Amino acid sequence: MENNQLKKRYGLFTAICMVVGIVIGSGVFFKAQDILNYTGGNMFLGILAWIIGGIVMIICAFNFANFATKYLKVNGIVDYAEAIVGKKYAYMTGWFLSTIYYPAMTSVLAWVSARYTLVLFDAGADITSGLCMALGAFYLCLAYAINILSPKIAGKFQVSATIIKLIPLAIIVVIGTVVGLINGNTIEAFTQASESTGSDFSSVFAGIAAAAFAYEGWIIATSINAELKNAKRNLPIALVVGTIIIMVIYITYFIGLTGGASVDVLRAEGSTTAIRNLFGNIGGTILNAFIVISCLGTLNGLMLACTRSLYSLSVRDCGPAPKTFAELDPHTNMPSNSGVFALLCCAGWFFYFYAANLTTPVFGLFSFDSSELPIITIYAIYIPIFVMFIKKEGKNNVFKNIVMPILAIIASTFMVFVAVYAHGVRPYQAAAENGEFSFPVLFYLIVFVVIMVIGACLYQKKNKK
């Protein structure tokens, strides 16, 4: 075996747990509150946001599952971009994943894990305090250490965390729905929604943007295809089965919460109050402990992808110092140098997230939501891949290679529009009423362009050499 080739260490069950375990983590717990607020407490519109977001995820995952049966090298999406569009596009995709998408999402999960840990001990804890950020930084380093020093333990933790995180969700779905039907809360929530006049369909767009964060992460499972046994069979199964499981769980959980609190309480206080009302202080504390493990499981999966991201470019002889970042540790068979780069990127985005969410944001107009805005560019990046795939493979299978990619193009374009609306049009309108200016998506795109230009310069420099 070459010294820069990863070992086959994961099976189908681990791959499914990667999909389910990375996606189901923090988003389902704290984005449910955001969705209710965006839709004015309308449960029907909230469920619609979850459904539309889930359908988009399943359509895109189906297409990537189809890609996985044809292309295999090091890192799923980068492999597909290279085989379908070209080497330079693959490089730029990998650079975006390495410097923006993976580290931004990972840093948010570190904070969320710390947030729920503090709430576990003190319901009134300040989740923007220095203590919360210090604990988040610790979790970030811990996830890095586990993945770099012992990938087998990281894989086993991913499986264990996935199983553990499904326990509170299943309990809340069953108990919450039953209790809600008995005490009338669930029926009242839907009755209130049917009589609501304070929201319209446009509010669903903002809800979908919030749901998109909760659904993000399934693509990360493709980052281990080089380490997956029988990847061309197991990865497609994991993507399709995992995404369907996720959508069903999210919708039923959203409904189950109404058994523990009214819609107004959920909008104001979130899921923690509903859980404590359903199970009491002790039961609620136990379930919240499971939620912390759930978040840590997602953080682990994101860090798993982060540590391998720059490696996937370096083995193609692309990016900064490819020989250095393509090296594998002889003892762990892990890309340690790539992992260090990933940790530094995560630390940078972690600091940004903290500074941008202070009462007075440090970066002013450049303070944007780093949990949701990278979704704009990830879906935009998918579109050329789907278009070129139709051109290359369309004649071989009409349904898989034409119909489904067309649906994916429509779905991806829709998600870009939704994110621009939620983080551009809505904040602009709200700020304009107060004589102010706010257009977060614009400033995110400026940051995106700067980082991508740096990546392009590194690519050109390498090619000239």
Describe this structure in words.
The chain has 465 residues and is mainly alpha-helical. The protein has a single domain (12-464), classed as Amino acid/polyamine transporter I. The chain is 76% helix and 0% strand. It is built from 17 helices and no strands. The chain has helices spanning 12-23, 27-38, 43-68, 76-84, 87-121, 130-149, 151-183, 185-195, 202-215, 231-256, 263-269, 271-314, 322-325, 336-356, 374-393, 398-432, 440-464. The longest helix has 44 residues, at 271-314.
What layout of secondary structure does this protein have?
Blueprint: H1 12-23, H2 27-38, H3 43-68, H4 76-84, H5 87-121, H6 130-149, H7 151-183, H8 185-195, H9 202-215, H10 231-256, H11 263-269, H12 271-314, H13 322-325, H14 336-356, H15 374-393, H16 398-432, H17 440-464
Helix pairs in contact: 1-7, 1-10, 1-12, 2-9, 2-11, 3-9, 3-10, 3-16, 4-5, 5-6, 5-12, 5-14, 5-15, 5-17, 6-7, 6-12, 6-14, 7-10, 7-12, 9-16, 12-14, 15-16
Please outline what is shown here:
The chain is mainly α and 465 residues long.
H/E element sequence: HHHHHHHHHHHHHHHHH
Class derived from helix and strand content = mainly alpha
Amount of beta strand:
under 5%
Question: Helicity range of the residues?
Answer: over 70%
What is the CA–CA distance across the termini?
29 Å
Q: Can you count the helices?
A: 17
Number of strands: 0
CATH domain topology: Amino acid/polyamine transporter I
Number of domains: 1
CATH superfamily: Amino acid/polyamine transporter I
Briefly, what CATH class? Answer: Mainly Alpha
- How would you sum up the major sheet? none
- Principal-axis shape equals globular
Uncertain residue ranges: none
